[in-house]
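Listing S7. Sequence submitted for prediction.
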Amino acid sequence: MIHNRIIYKLFTSILIVSFFLGCAARDLSYRRRGKGVYHTVKKGQTVWRIAKTYGIDIRPLMRINRLSDPKDLKVGQRLFIPDAKRVLGVKVYIPPDKKRWTAINEEQRSYRAKDVLFKWPVKGKVTSLFGFQSRRKHDGIDIAAPGGTPIKTAADGKVIFSGWGPTGYGRMVIVKHTRNFVTVYAHNRKNLVYKNQHVKSGQKIAEVGASGRTTGPHLHFEIRLKRISVDPMRHLPIL
């Protein structure tokens, strides 16, 4: 029996090693065949924006370029983009200046209860509020709910993204609304809508999950005004 267990563990280890070596071999074969291009990273470019521009999933892009953390990206670094035919221009992230941020906050405060545009996307307990949490800014609120719970769009709008989001967000849906508002629904188990689809308020667009960087099933919900995150609690009806 002991002899059989040793053989089984050895066989399992060989399979695991073979799997990872196989992945590495496939990744290297792209470079050897020359099927792709090298993109030189510029200031303000992120792994997620680069992956989105070239239409590639962020995970194989990081694996091929041996990136363990997307934050390790450096200006001037060359990333190999498999199957790309030419180098593309990638939009850079430009943080909002203080004056614009102040103007957005003033505009946010100008909305009163009678102007509430949004409905709660899911019923559950709010476990994390908007603002700084342990010295890190939290761009939305977290609503705890069992996995598979329906996520409903907070207002009429148009889906502008449905897929795997930037680092930590997991599967997410982004919906554009009137008055320059955008809502974000992240950590989903399953997305049920597609890009450019028009959705109605209260329509089921996803299911609660735990994809991305999270400790359990919940919905990370954001409201953005002119691309800047604002406190969702100011724009949701009081329960």
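Caption to Listing S7: primary sequence and predicted structure tokens for the chain studied. The first helix runs from residue 2 to 33. Helices lie at 2-33, 47-54, 58-64, 98-109.
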